[in-house]
Amino acid sequence: MTPLPSDIEIARDAQLRSPLDVAQDMGIDTAQLEPYGHHVAKVDLSTIDQLADRPQAKYVVVTAVTPTPFGEGKTTTAVGLAQGLAKEGHSPVLALRQPSLGPVFGIKGGAAGGGYSQVVPMEVLNLHLTGDFHAVTAAHDLLAAMVSNHLHHGNELGIHTVEWRRVLDINDRALRAIIEGNGGPMDGVTRQSGFDITAASEVMVILALATSLADLRERLGRIVVGWTKAGEPVTAEDLKAAGAMAVLLRDALKPNLLQTLEGTPALIHTGPFGNIATGNSSVVADRIGSRAGDFLVTEAGFAADMGAERFFNVKCRAAGLTPDAAVVVVTVRALKAHSDRFQVKLGKELPAEMLAEGPADVEAGAPNLRKHLSIIRSFGVQPVVAINAFPTDHDSEHEVIRRIATEEGARVAVSTHVAEGGQGARELARVVAEACEEETSFTPTYELSDPLATKIEKIATGVYGADGVSFEPAARRALEQYTERGYGELPVLIAKTQMSLSHDPNLKGAPTGWTLPIREVRLAAGAGYVYALAGSIMTMPGLSKHPGAERIDLDEQGNVVGLF
Amino acid sequence: MTPLPSDIEIARDAQLRSPLDVAQDMGIDTAQLEPYGHHVAKVDLSTIDQLADRPQAKYVVVTAVTPTPFGEGKTTTAVGLAQGLAKEGHSPVLALRQPSLGPVFGIKGGAAGGGYSQVVPMEVLNLHLTGDFHAVTAAHDLLAAMVSNHLHHGNELGIHTVEWRRVLDINDRALRAIIEGNGGPMDGVTRQSGFDITAASEVMVILALATSLADLRERLGRIVVGWTKAGEPVTAEDLKAAGAMAVLLRDALKPNLLQTLEGTPALIHTGPFGNIATGNSSVVADRIGSRAGDFLVTEAGFAADMGAERFFNVKCRAAGLTPDAAVVVVTVRALKAHSDRFQVKLGKELPAEMLAEGPADVEAGAPNLRKHLSIIRSFGVQPVVAINAFPTDHDSEHEVIRRIATEEGARVAVSTHVAEGGQGARELARVVAEACEEETSFTPTYELSDPLATKIEKIATGVYGADGVSFEPAARRALEQYTERGYGELPVLIAKTQMSLSHDPNLKGAPTGWTLPIREVRLAAGAGYVYALAGSIMTMPGLSKHPGAERIDLDEQGNVVGLF
């Protein structure tokens, strides 16, 4: 149809299959499902064992070049690819993150794909789904209440510095920095604290990385909420909070089964922030999905230097799963933006000259694509370039991208999944299937036994392309402290801007000749990683002057309007 | 069984019916149900219209004498009564509030009844259920974020005083009073604010009192978040927040169908605080329940002066339903406590001499029971006394209560529902059924057209037994302001201690010769009432030194332990 109907119009017209039928396609027993409304079901974790004898699916992660502020369509491409694989006669399963309520009511709108490549039911997915995010908020804030309560009742454990903040699944900048305990002596201890968005909670990452309920319980216990004056960690286990947290999260650990517009199974589960957290959907969903079809398609947040690096180095290691191929989503507009010849700003229209036919501009931005393909290759994984086609693209521009991909030894396809659904992604599906037949030898960037600083340096030089890393003295000291306390064998995660391969959002293309500055490091002992901050990272978004929430309402029939 | 197994042991041994079967007993179509897991379903609101031609059930509210700090078993009695009515051949429906997570992890444990009179599944009920409380938290805090955001972006509406706080469903005293916006200029406006528990949210009351999705949407729009310098109200509609809030609450407005241990239908829905809010379950659940059986049994928070007064004056008016009988739960220990001869303290064992046979002590506490019966009569409703029997009771003590009830013209029954389930409540069921056959003429305490101050005075003198009311000047001024701005015809609600008929928790029995002091009044324009504060009311509980959460955990099979 031209013009394309809006996402919500397309979603509302969809004929949904029963989740029981969808599960049957996956070889999952009805007894393993708990229905949540008519179109969603939770899948019991015992399914992992039940499917253990089935063959392993090809494991495909969808990542991207360094994006413009608009994003380049990783989610739509993942959905479209799954639908395209089905059209090609395969039995794919899709595994994606659950959207956060904050952005839904902020600027971004829904996050269920777009056009004819969406996960449905769209309103359910974008609102509470089965309440997993709310369970994370409750578990996180119960621990926070128990920390504050412990201080109030005399601080027997001798907590000297508190590092555990609170979370809400809402964009509320006024809560970034608060003073709590601002009442009388019966109203808690006065101290500085603050709120992050729920997607930034360590509990969210724990839910995403846990391999079983028992593993979840243990990880919760290992959370470090603060430190004594002698530099000893104080954990959620020390506070006797981890059991109650696990109880709150018991159902949230079960993945949610939804479907694409074309009825492809979609496991939607957890939603860790892409910046200070892993930015990938859950391990348990992937362990189910990897035995419930012949292809498992998942997505990693931001570009290949961010989400895909964490997918390979952290998630695949935790899951014990080996990737077969990585799809790098690229758009004409993204490569043009990397030419650094145009000003692209969120909330503004693209400059008109950027929409004119400009294969040379695409070519000028190509180093970014080449670098991301080499990042994928550095892990021993097959890259595939997916050109996410826009109506404003020109054939000559697509040809440039095809040529660059081929020069880099990567398969490439143009995909029109937004306008045409799975039918538009059949070429992509075919080349992805071909790539998965190649011999791979998956190689993480670092060994867990490497020193923490070395791990950070290997990511900075081996993935980002930096010359080296400079550590602030406090960051060095913290790395030493973590190592002394037994956290030295954890993987690391670098929190930096997603708008550049470097830490400077203004550096486009594939920057060289720069050093990554690490100003601070922090510990996520429950999730199981150390994270290093390269620049200031926003963990609680704000709302714009006229946020999306102002346009969202119910119509007279009780339908949701304004969610797009 | 002697001794009685623990609540959670009894609950876990229960053989649950399918919610589809339970609904069938109620005359509700399967198509009206949305399953949430295997044992809970949401009931669509169109059921109200579908059942409109069916006969009206007898409407019975369970209330109590002024309780000891342990509570006197209103919930167990309501559950037992419903089970007893079923044993007597009736088709009862039970309608109760959903428990709050705060007390579950605080001191109180679960709130699903007790012994052989419980609502099940107990863990689901006491944890997230279907996420309705989380939806209230999200909607409430979205509005709070939009208020703070409006201030940050220039305060076009000229909000001078903000009255909208934030909520979390957790006991966290350190959040009672906070300073928000404590970061830099991009981190919001610095001001004093704080958090209440979700059960104290006006949004929770709106959900409880709304008669339809359209009514919910309108009530949300009427919420007053603050005032301009000129004394004009600023509403959620003015902030364009009410539509998004309604979207978040759309599913939460559908009542949750559970069951008692004996398979009786139980609609569990909403949970407004008993103090500053209405303390009653939802109007929509009662409108469904009142056509889905021959008896609808519900409970009102705290004693007859508190929850039942609000049930009659606020909820029944909003629902358009007329009560037939009110069960006043009484225990031997409560009347002994009202003798003022014993010290009863939360967290301490009852004094040994209180457990000795003491009919004279019961007699000495009887004025409290007599007063509550006269409160029920003042509404033109038939009272029934339910003696909630304890193993430590003596027959002579029950006899005193029977005699007092009879002297007051009330039916009376001893109920052993905790130890024996519905079988133990058959006598109670019979006398309740008899009472419902009496002619009644329901009469609220005041007319909506009475001035606000008069309404408060009529409750204080006509219900509590005060000589009169003294208003602080600020309270008088606020009542005048509310009247000028068009809120004069709202009902009123008085927030006072539940531990006495008066505002002083130390005054036992039926105090006389006292004046009710109103220090402050507030407006809940969306919920649709003005509330007057008589004493300081805690809207955010704290945790004890060793809260219940410390004992709650998962066992090796993944079962919840420590919830009792």
CATH superfamily of the largest domain in chain A: P-loop containing nucleotide triphosphate hydrolases
Shape of chain A: globular
Portion in strands of chain A: 15-25%
Quantity of strands of chain A, as a count? 26
The structure class of chain A reads: alpha/beta
Helix content of chain A: 25-40%
Report the major sheet of chain A.
12 strands, mixed
Give the N-terminus to C-terminus distance of chain A in angstroms.
Answer: 18 Å
- What do the pLDDT scores of chain A average to? 95
CATH fold naming of the largest domain in chain A: Rossmann fold
Number of self-contained structural domains of chain A: 3
Could you explain how this protein is built, in words?
The structure is a homodimer of 564-residue chains. The first copy, chain A, has 3 domains: 10-130 and 252-437, P-loop containing nucleotide triphosphate hydrolases (Rossmann fold), CATH 3.40.50; 132-249, Domain 2, N(10)-formyltetrahydrofolate synthetase (2-Layer Sandwich); 452-533, Formyltetrahydrofolate synthetase, domain 3, CATH 3.10.410. Chain A is of the alpha/beta class and 564 residues long. In chain A, helix 7 (132-152) packs across helix 8. In chain A, strands 1, 2, 3, 4, 5, 6, 14, 15, 16, 17, 18 and 19 form a 12-stranded mixed sheet that branches. In chain A, strand 12 and strand 13 (233-235) form a beta hairpin. Chain A is globular. Chain A is built from 20 helices and 26 strands. The interface between A and B is large, with 76 and 76 residues. Chains A, B: Keywords: ATP-binding, Ligase, Nucleotide-binding, One-carbon metabolism. Chains A, B: It holds the Pfam family FTHFS. Chains A, B: It is an enzyme of class 6 (ligase). Chains A, B: ATP binds at residues 68-75. Chains A, B: One of its GO terms (molecular function) is formate-tetrahydrofolate ligase activity.
